[in-house]
Request: fold
Amino acid sequence: METLNLLAMGFEQALTPEALMFCLLGVSLGTFIGVLPGIGSLTTIALCLPLTFHLEPLLGLIMLAGIFYGAQYGSSTASILLNVPGSAPAAITCLDGYPMSRQGRAGIALFMTTIASFIGGSFAILLLVFFAPVLANFAISFSAADYFSIMILALTAASTLSVGSPVKGLAMVTFGLLLGMVGTDINSGQFRFTFGIPALTDGINLVALAMGLFGVAEILNNLNEGKVPQAGQEAITLKNMMPTKDDWKAFRYSCMRGSLIGSFIGMLPGTGPTIATFMAYAGEKKLSHHPEKFGHGAVEGISAPEAANNASVQAAFIPTLTLGVPGDAIMAVMLGGLLVHGITPGPQLVTTDAALFWGVVASFWIGNVLLLILNLPMIGLWVKLLSIPYRFLFPAVLFLICIGVYSVNNNRVDVLLTLGFGVMGFFLNRHGFASAPLLLGFVLGPLIEENFRRALVLSDSSLATFVERPISLVFLVLTAILLVFSLWRKTGTTHSRSQAAP
Amino acid sequence: MLPTFLLALLGLGAAFTAFSYDVGSFTGMGPGFFPLALGLILFLLGGVILWQDRQPPEAIAEQAHPFAWRPFAAVSAGILAWVLLAETTGFFVAAACQVVLTSLALPKPRWRSIAIMAAVLATGGYLLFVTQLGVPLSAVG
Reply:
């Protein structure tokens, strides 16, 4: 009952005209960039981050979160119509979404992905409502050693479970952790890796790093590949969106299974929506009586991954808000944003900042309903967006990146750093190094160091504390299993192009 | 190959730099302890990757999109123009230079639409960031 009361209070927070406006703004912007291939939600969130510094934390978080899950709704549109994913997790939707579109069933595919997204998202929000407080209660007893170990687990999972070489993922995480050390050491006041540059004494600017690694590198890569997709125009109306009876039958259970898989994966530290969609698709194909239909427009092939996608995105807020341990790079940026507002996510957030926590949770539901409205009757509008030529898009995005990064500290050096990180990310990506683990390492770096030091102080400098505490031991054992498993699998994974986007 | 090599080198460099801070020991960790450990790990991982990529199966797949100078130079020049000009010649000149230079990333630039875009972006950007959000940049000079 208490949960429901708290949720009601959350709705009070989230239903103010201001909160509604920022929620609508967030989900619309999210859908917008989700539909457009070539601009990721991480770039957009990082761009909007400085804008939210002027807002109340709740409003800022509502908007940033709205961009994140809104983008997941939009991203299937380009997958279905163009065979190009609007964002990385939607890549799997191309496999069956595009064939459906070729069969003249694009409208139905769009309809079903929207409904699947809504069901997946709603399911995970329910989980968030009832499970997050329990987890927070449990996590209140976590010590520094436990936090250190869970963060190590998160980083290991994020770097080894993504596509491409696990060793390269680990190298990027380590690089990210090192970048996180740049600045003033909080314990001793020592400047580390600042090289006499005043702009670096407060550490590398998160917005500059994220914009470079994702925004600039993404654009450099798109321009280098030279293929910028354009949509064939096909009229999508509500009338030709109605699925048949058989479609519904295929849809029902696959959507539920996708929601379950997505929620589970989303809750784990270090795993993002991309993994969730791959697992949901693989699972459906295994379970199906007609696996040969997959890849030729099977409804299960789009409903399960889309449900999983949105479920994992919503569930990802569980570890981020209740433990302060983000699951993927996007959540890491959100965590960074909260820290700037002086809010430290963790078990105490659910109780001490109850208004914020429940307000955000309530806004998720409002946002998902708004997205349903935005995506069903208004789908034609979004489809038209696909006809915006890339030659207008990339200069505009780069312009926004320049001024956006500058506005954080009113410092030109940050913009220069953005360019540097962009060039670096572009070349690293070309050689199969993914950027997401680096960003995650960067955000978690200072937290890991702090918890490591604190754990040793508490244990009189005995390293044994990490294996003597049962919770910490469990996380470390899981980390070891992951490492052994991923190295066992050898690096010969056949994903030749480990472009591994966020 | 080269990026891996540079990463390994970077790890080694970081480890060396960390020595100049107080490293300390487990009983009293100094600010150099973590960077030293991380630098060494990065160096080690770089070595492992170099060893794994001896017979590079990946290298072949990566040839798919050869590096193109034009977009790379245009994007870099655009951002550099902003860095150099924003505080000296003012918002509008910097924004226009940035948009025009980055637009050159694509062959056969359409000057009219680039000019319109530069004007629209500069004006909109000025209104949003300078007028509304108070970013301290002057319009001109």
